Prior knowledge:
single chain; Toxin; DUF397; flat; 21% strand
Amino acid sequence: MRAVAARDSKDPSGPVLTFGAGEWRTFLAEVKRGAYDA
């Protein structure tokens, strides 16, 4: 995986955010450890 592209599914013509593989792996690790729990 080189990059991950994400967008708001409620706005399909809106902007696309692109994350490098390292950024995405870091984000997933943070989600798994609960860094973004409300």
